[in-house]
Amino acid sequence: MVGAGSIGTGWAVLFAAAGFMVRLQDIDPGRLAAACDEAAARLADLAARGLLDQPAPKAAARIDATTSLEAALADAAYVQECVPEQLELKQRLFARLDELAPAGCPLASSSSFITPSHLAESLPGRERCLIVHPGNPPYLLRVAELVPAPFTDPKTVERTEGLLRQAGVVPIRVKREVEGFVFNRLQGALLREAYCLVRDGVASVADIDLLVRDGLGLRWSVVGPFETVDLNTRGGIAAHAERMGPSYARMGAERGQNDPWTTGLVAEVAAQRRAELALAEWEARVAWRDRTLMGLLKARAAGRT
Q1: At what angle do helices 236-254 and 263-276 cross, to 10 degrees?
Q2: Dihedral (Cα; 184, 189, 191, 196), 10-degree rounding
Q3: Are 184 and 99 a contacting pair, CB within 8 Å?
Q4: DSSP E strand stretches across the chain
Q5: What is the pTM of this model?
Q6: Residue whose C-alpha is closest to residue 168's, from 54, 64, 60, 16
Q7: Out of 28-32, 206-210, 291-295, 299-303, least confident range
Q8: Please, what CATH class does the domain formed by 6-173 belong to?
Q9: What distance in Å separates the CA atoms of residue 167 and residue 169, rounded to the nearest whole number?
Q10: Residues contacting residue 64 through CB under 8 Å, at least 6 positions apart
Q11: Model confidence at 304, in pLDDT bands (50, 70, 90)?
Q12: Sign of dihedral through CA atoms 124, 9, 113, 265?
């Protein structure tokens, strides 16, 4: 893990908890010391809540801290870059990683927006470079976006995906490079509208947070946005698009957006949903969703006592 900020520390916690030996590198000795303390505290929190299958000190002992990039990369099987979101800084660092890391070792960036082509296009070892963008914190949000460049070797992607699965992370393959990938584009769409609603005097910051936390967020912790509308409308997602699509189009137009749900697009989305869930199974899935939400509400209530 190159960079001992919150993301680098979070990755270190995740891999150490999964049994991997981790070297955490940063040029700032003070930051390194703080990161090791933070990692130990997070591992203790996981253990206290039954989310770690070993004593926390045993997992924490797998994290070795160093200010030396050369020492950090010696015999590394995988490198995760976690420095600030600055293009030139990351480009300079990736050039050093490519020089120092063992041959064949995947070089992954935690970048939130910068594409791998911008980071590594001119490097001799560019075929082993890609983005692995985590949810934050990585040890709790167990998904990561794998974003290869056109020049990334498919074997690098496969090797990285296998490593993440061993660490308990669900990898999401992004099919082509796009700024912000999928996670931040979805998050950004909600944030843009939230800012507009505050600006326009429609709702307060606190009420928007409450609505997402206890409404959209609660529901989305069980099913995603496509499955949500699929299960909210009898007849599934095609029926939802027919009934609600014009209203969503008008709301988008208010913000200067013109991305209609065309007949072909709806058909593609509906076909993918039906491949996941036949309409004959719709009632059973709705009942499952409701029971799962009931379990979450019960856990929330217990956590407040």
Answers
A1: 140
A2: 160
A3: no
A4: 22-25, 63-66, 79-81, 107-109, 129-134, 143-148, 170-173
A5: 0.94
A6: 16
A7: 299-303
A8: alpha beta
A9: 6
A10: 21, 22, 23, 24
A11: confident
A12: positive
